[in-house]
Specification:
Blueprint lengths: L12 H20 L6 H12 L3 E2 H8 L3 H13 L3 E5 L7 E5 L1 H10 L2 H7 L5 H22 L7
Protein name: MarR family transcriptional regulator
Keywords: Cytoplasm, DNA-binding, Transcription, Transcription regulation
Subcellular location: Cytoplasm
Length: 153
């Protein structure tokens, strides 16, 4: 590829990720809407279903969300009755996030989301898995350069 070709939008990796992400959100929206969840709320719950009782700081690091984004999101999930936020008795500066029974029960309803999402595409599950591995590898390499959390994986 000629150097001036790199400046075309169609050759920008960041644009490919951006447009793919937007299209993925369009696929998730009708699957999450019946659950009353946005995509960001969904990934937050996915993280809590894996490991409950984490601090806001731990959750933010795992989701790559800053506190300015995460705090309103957690307040909304709490208002929905899906989580509780409690000050850590050992360290008042930390807030512990825990699922409520309603939040735990939602996991069963959400269990079909990934399967329905994949079924709604023309992409084979093997290709999705391979793409996921490539993206995770790419993130690790970026993390090694930037000193980001992904380098630790």
């Amino acid at each position: 590829m000629q150097p001036n070709e790199y400046m075309k939008l169609e050759h920008q990796l960041c644009f490919a990720f951006y447009t793919c992400s937007r299209e993925m959100m369009k696929l998730y929206r009708p699957l999450l809407s019946p659950l009353g969840l946005t995509y960001t709320q969904y990934i937050t719950l996915l993280s809590l279903w894996e490991q409950d009782g984490v601090t806001v700081k731990e959750l933010g690091a795992k989701l790559f969300l800053d506190s300015g984004t995460l705090t309103p999101l957690l307040k909304k999930l709490e208002a929905m009755g899906l989580i509780t936020r409690t000050r850590d008795k050992a360290d008042e500066r930390s807030v512990i996030i825990e699922l409520t029974a309603k939040g735990q029960d939602l996991r069963e309803q959400a269990a079909e989301v990934p399967t329905k999402l994949y079924a709604g595409t023309n992409v084979r599950i093997e290709d999705i898995q391979a793409m996921h591995e490539h993206i995770q590898s790419f993130l690790r390499k970026i993390g090694e350069v930037t000193g980001g959390r992904e380098a630790e994986r």
